[in-house]
Amino acid sequence: MEMPKDTPSGVVKLVQQCWAKNPDERPDFSKIFKSLRSMKT
């Protein structure tokens, strides 16, 4: 699935990590939260 062209690169990277085929490669919620929090500031 393509992301909109104006999507921030950090969001694109995070979404790609969350969509990893191997569940062990996906970030846990605390890592997702930290990533989103750092993007906000």
Automatic annotation (TrEMBL):
Domain Serine-threonine/tyrosine-protein kinase catalytic positions: 1-36
Name of this chain's protein: Serine-threonine/tyrosine-protein kinase catalytic domain-containing protein
InterPro entries assigned: Kinase-like_dom_sf, Ser-Thr/Tyr_kinase_cat_dom
GO molecular function, one term: protein kinase activity
Pfam families documented for this protein: PK_Tyr_Ser-Thr
Organismal lineage: Eukaryota, Metazoa, Ecdysozoa, Nematoda, Chromadorea
